[in-house]
Amino acid sequence: MTKANNFQRIRELNYLQKAVLAAAILERMLPNYGLFSEATGFGDETTLRSALNVCWEKVLLPKSKISLEKQIEKIEPNVPELKDFDMFGTYAAIDVATALLGFIQGVMSKDESEFVNVAKISQATVARYIEFLLEAEGIEPDNQHVREHPLMQYEIDVLSELIDCVAEMPRIDNQSVKTLKALALSDGQTNIGLAIEA
Predict the structure, then answer these.
(1) What burial letters (b/e) apply to 43-55, b meaning 16+ CB within 10 Å?
(2) Structure confidence by residue, pLDDT tens digits, 131-168
(3) Angle formed by the axes of helices 89-109 and 45-60, to 10°?
(4) H or E element in which residue 138 lies
(5) Is the pTM of this model over 0.90?
(6) Residue 98 half-sphere exposure, CB side, CA atoms within 13 Å?
(7) Number of other residues whose CB lies within 10 A of the CB of residue 132
(8) Taking the domain 3-181, which CATH number applies?
(9) Distances in Å between the alpha carbon of 25 and those of 8, 70, 97, 156?
(10) Which domain of life does this protein belong to (predicted)?
(11) Nearest 5°: phi and psi at 195?
Protein backbone atom coordinates (compact mmCIF):
# COMPACT_ATOMS: atom_id res chain seq x y z
CA MET A 1 0.00 0.00 0.00
CA THR A 2 1.68 3.21 -1.09
CA LYS A 3 1.38 6.52 0.73
CA ALA A 4 -0.20 8.37 -2.21
CA ASN A 5 -2.68 5.56 -2.56
CA ASN A 6 -3.88 5.98 1.05
CA PHE A 7 -4.32 9.74 0.74
CA GLN A 8 -6.13 9.30 -2.57
CA ARG A 9 -8.44 6.77 -0.91
CA ILE A 10 -9.19 9.26 1.90
CA ARG A 11 -10.08 11.95 -0.66
CA GLU A 12 -12.60 9.56 -2.23
CA LEU A 13 -14.50 9.15 1.07
CA ASN A 14 -17.51 11.35 1.81
CA TYR A 15 -17.43 14.20 4.32
CA LEU A 16 -18.65 12.17 7.30
CA GLN A 17 -16.35 9.24 6.53
CA LYS A 18 -13.35 11.60 6.31
CA ALA A 19 -14.33 13.26 9.60
CA VAL A 20 -14.59 10.04 11.62
CA LEU A 21 -11.39 8.70 10.04
CA ALA A 22 -9.51 11.86 11.08
CA ALA A 23 -10.92 11.57 14.61
CA ALA A 24 -9.77 7.93 14.78
CA ILE A 25 -6.25 8.94 13.67
CA LEU A 26 -6.27 11.61 16.40
CA GLU A 27 -7.14 8.90 18.95
CA ARG A 28 -3.83 7.24 18.07
CA MET A 29 -1.89 10.51 18.25
CA LEU A 30 -3.37 11.97 21.44
CA PRO A 31 -1.50 9.81 24.00
CA ASN A 32 1.80 11.23 22.62
CA TYR A 33 0.69 14.54 24.11
CA GLY A 34 -0.02 12.89 27.46
CA LEU A 35 3.46 11.32 27.53
CA PHE A 36 5.05 14.70 26.74
CA SER A 37 2.94 16.44 29.37
CA GLU A 38 3.86 13.83 31.99
CA ALA A 39 7.57 14.19 31.20
CA THR A 40 7.63 18.00 31.22
CA GLY A 41 4.77 19.09 33.47
CA PHE A 42 3.55 21.31 30.62
CA GLY A 43 0.02 21.29 29.26
CA ASP A 44 -3.17 19.48 30.15
CA GLU A 45 -3.96 16.33 28.20
CA THR A 46 -7.54 16.30 29.55
CA THR A 47 -8.22 19.58 27.70
CA LEU A 48 -7.26 17.95 24.39
CA ARG A 49 -9.04 14.73 25.32
CA SER A 50 -12.33 16.50 26.06
CA ALA A 51 -11.98 18.61 22.88
CA LEU A 52 -11.65 15.43 20.82
CA ASN A 53 -14.67 13.91 22.61
CA VAL A 54 -16.66 17.04 21.79
CA CYS A 55 -15.61 16.76 18.13
CA TRP A 56 -16.80 13.14 17.92
CA GLU A 57 -20.14 14.32 19.32
CA LYS A 58 -20.39 17.27 16.92
CA VAL A 59 -19.60 15.06 13.91
CA LEU A 60 -22.28 12.54 14.91
CA LEU A 61 -24.81 15.19 16.03
CA PRO A 62 -24.12 18.24 13.83
CA LYS A 63 -27.12 20.12 15.25
CA SER A 64 -25.86 19.88 18.86
CA LYS A 65 -25.24 23.24 20.52
CA ILE A 66 -21.54 22.65 21.10
CA SER A 67 -19.19 25.62 20.79
CA LEU A 68 -16.08 24.51 18.92
CA GLU A 69 -14.62 28.04 19.20
CA LYS A 70 -14.43 27.49 22.97
CA GLN A 71 -12.47 24.29 22.40
CA ILE A 72 -9.92 26.17 20.28
CA GLU A 73 -9.51 28.78 23.01
CA LYS A 74 -8.87 26.00 25.54
CA ILE A 75 -6.35 24.13 23.36
CA GLU A 76 -4.20 27.06 22.22
CA PRO A 77 -2.47 27.72 25.60
CA ASN A 78 -1.60 23.99 25.70
CA VAL A 79 0.50 24.05 22.52
CA PRO A 80 4.17 23.81 23.57
CA GLU A 81 6.91 26.00 22.09
CA LEU A 82 9.85 24.09 20.58
CA LYS A 83 12.36 26.49 22.08
CA ASP A 84 11.14 25.75 25.62
CA PHE A 85 11.80 22.00 25.59
CA ASP A 86 14.81 20.03 24.48
CA MET A 87 13.22 16.67 23.73
CA PHE A 88 11.74 14.86 20.75
CA GLY A 89 8.33 14.57 22.43
CA THR A 90 7.81 18.30 21.90
CA TYR A 91 7.44 17.73 18.14
CA ALA A 92 4.91 14.95 18.68
CA ALA A 93 2.94 17.09 21.17
CA ILE A 94 2.86 20.06 18.77
CA ASP A 95 1.71 17.75 15.96
CA VAL A 96 -1.16 16.44 18.12
CA ALA A 97 -2.33 19.96 18.98
CA THR A 98 -1.92 21.18 15.39
CA ALA A 99 -3.85 18.21 13.98
CA LEU A 100 -6.62 18.64 16.56
CA LEU A 101 -6.94 22.39 15.92
CA GLY A 102 -7.03 21.74 12.16
CA PHE A 103 -9.65 19.05 12.65
CA ILE A 104 -11.86 21.43 14.67
CA GLN A 105 -11.47 24.09 11.95
CA GLY A 106 -12.47 21.46 9.39
CA VAL A 107 -15.62 20.57 11.34
CA MET A 108 -16.51 24.25 11.79
CA SER A 109 -15.98 25.20 8.15
CA LYS A 110 -16.89 21.82 6.60
CA ASP A 111 -13.43 21.85 4.99
CA GLU A 112 -12.65 18.22 4.15
CA SER A 113 -9.01 18.98 3.29
CA GLU A 114 -8.40 19.53 7.03
CA PHE A 115 -9.37 15.88 7.63
CA VAL A 116 -6.87 14.68 5.02
CA ASN A 117 -4.25 16.89 6.71
CA VAL A 118 -4.71 15.01 10.00
CA ALA A 119 -3.51 11.83 8.28
CA LYS A 120 -0.61 13.75 6.74
CA ILE A 121 0.43 15.24 10.09
CA SER A 122 0.31 11.79 11.72
CA GLN A 123 2.57 10.40 9.00
CA ALA A 124 4.91 13.40 9.33
CA THR A 125 5.20 12.72 13.09
CA VAL A 126 6.18 9.13 12.32
CA ALA A 127 8.72 10.27 9.70
CA ARG A 128 10.29 12.74 12.14
CA TYR A 129 10.47 10.10 14.86
CA ILE A 130 12.18 7.64 12.49
CA GLU A 131 14.74 10.34 11.56
CA PHE A 132 15.33 10.94 15.28
CA LEU A 133 15.86 7.19 15.90
CA LEU A 134 18.20 6.79 12.90
CA GLU A 135 20.28 9.82 13.87
CA ALA A 136 20.61 8.41 17.40
CA GLU A 137 22.10 5.29 15.79
CA GLY A 138 24.46 7.44 13.72
CA ILE A 139 22.62 6.76 10.45
CA GLU A 140 22.01 9.67 8.09
CA PRO A 141 18.27 9.38 7.37
CA ASP A 142 17.10 9.67 3.77
CA ASN A 143 13.67 9.22 2.22
CA GLN A 144 14.23 5.55 1.51
CA HIS A 145 15.31 4.82 5.10
CA VAL A 146 12.22 6.58 6.40
CA ARG A 147 9.82 4.99 3.90
CA GLU A 148 11.10 1.45 4.46
CA HIS A 149 11.32 1.70 8.25
CA PRO A 150 8.97 -0.77 10.02
CA LEU A 151 7.29 2.08 11.93
CA MET A 152 6.37 3.87 8.68
CA GLN A 153 5.22 0.65 7.03
CA TYR A 154 3.08 0.02 10.09
CA GLU A 155 1.61 3.55 10.04
CA ILE A 156 0.65 3.08 6.38
CA ASP A 157 -0.89 -0.34 7.10
CA VAL A 158 -2.91 0.95 10.07
CA LEU A 159 -4.18 3.91 8.04
CA SER A 160 -5.18 1.57 5.24
CA GLU A 161 -7.05 -0.64 7.72
CA LEU A 162 -8.88 2.35 9.20
CA ILE A 163 -9.84 3.55 5.69
CA ASP A 164 -11.20 0.05 4.92
CA CYS A 165 -13.24 0.12 8.12
CA VAL A 166 -14.73 3.54 7.34
CA ALA A 167 -15.36 2.77 3.67
CA GLU A 168 -17.32 -0.37 4.59
CA MET A 169 -19.57 1.28 7.22
CA PRO A 170 -23.19 0.95 6.12
CA ARG A 171 -23.92 4.06 8.18
CA ILE A 172 -21.99 6.24 10.58
CA ASP A 173 -23.57 6.17 14.04
CA ASN A 174 -22.52 5.60 17.66
CA GLN A 175 -22.10 1.87 17.13
CA SER A 176 -19.95 2.06 13.98
CA VAL A 177 -17.85 4.83 15.58
CA LYS A 178 -17.27 2.61 18.64
CA THR A 179 -15.98 -0.11 16.33
CA LEU A 180 -13.70 2.37 14.54
CA LYS A 181 -12.29 3.76 17.82
CA ALA A 182 -11.65 0.23 19.12
CA LEU A 183 -9.82 -0.62 15.89
CA ALA A 184 -7.71 2.55 16.08
CA LEU A 185 -6.56 1.67 19.60
CA SER A 186 -6.57 -2.13 19.32
CA ASP A 187 -2.78 -2.44 19.14
CA GLY A 188 -2.34 -0.46 22.36
CA GLN A 189 0.16 1.99 20.92
CA THR A 190 0.36 5.49 19.51
CA ASN A 191 1.20 6.28 15.89
CA ILE A 192 4.92 6.36 16.82
CA GLY A 193 4.76 2.99 18.56
CA LEU A 194 4.68 4.15 22.20
CA ALA A 195 2.57 2.03 24.55
CA ILE A 196 -0.77 3.54 25.51
CA GLU A 197 -1.50 3.04 29.19
CA ALA A 198 -4.85 1.38 29.56
Answers:
(1) bebebbbebbebb
(2) 999 999 999 999 999 999 999 999 999 999 999 999 99
(3) 30
(4) none
(5) yes
(6) 16
(7) 14
(8) 1.20.1590.10
(9) 16, 22, 13, 12
(10) Bacteria
(11) -65, 135
